[in-house]
Amino acid sequence: MNIYVTSAIAGLKEKLNGYVALLNYRYTNLCVKAELGALLPVTVIADKEYNLEDVAVIFTPTEYQFDIHPKLRDYLQPIIDGIFDVHPEFKLEIQQVEKSDDQRDKHLLYTMPEVDNDRHDLLENLTKVFYEECDADIDKELALHTGGLPELAGKMSVEDIDEIKDELFNIRDEYHDKTKELKQEKLIEIEEAYQRYLAANEGKNLAEGEIDFTKCMRLGQVEE
């Protein structure tokens, strides 16, 4: 395998890894559960500009909550402002720090919004849109990498060029499978949260794990 082929394969994988990482990042910020990646875009502006992890200690007491403890009292309001700028949908409760005699010692409990009917539809639609955009980018990248293959006609046999093309298409298919898997996982996550919302609002006293996940199981099947 010559240098061009090795470079083409490595270059394609590098680009496709970037597209898949972006899709995963976008899904993380369609906040259903409290995933730390959703806080990465938060900028805290105090005496200077900080990342959130520089000015706070972050806990996840439940899979749907962030518990954020400012390292200094002066960071409290800038943290609130920074998170609101990125995720205004988060539900905030300002709480007193336990075992502190100073009423100024506060921490921030953020709860992810319920997945009600409207939010369910919005999240599902965005999940599918982001998936389609990512897959389109993958196909465009493949076209760019296969576009240069005819230039090798005088240097390699037709069979070798076809073999290279097949390898590039196989890589493309592998990344399509990855994006499809990410999409299915997100749709299941959304549906599970929606079923919990319905159960809670219908007054069902279901124990943990007793929710009917029939639709979630269907979503988990690979789409053709």
Output the radius of gyration: 23 Å
Mean pLDDT: 86
Q: Shape from CA axes? A: elongated
Q: What's the multimeric state?
A: single chain
The share of residues in extended strands comes to 5-15%
Cα-to-Cα separation, first versus last residue: 34 Å
Helix content: 40-55%
Structural class, from secondary structure content? alpha+beta
Low-pLDDT runs? 205-209
- Biggest sheet, spatial arrangement of strands: 3-4-6-5
Element-by-element helix/strand order? HEEHEEHEEHHH
Number of helices: 6
How is the main sheet built?
4 strands, antiparallel
Number of strands: 6
Features of the shown structure:
224 residues; alpha+beta; four-stranded antiparallel sheet; two-stranded antiparallel ribbon
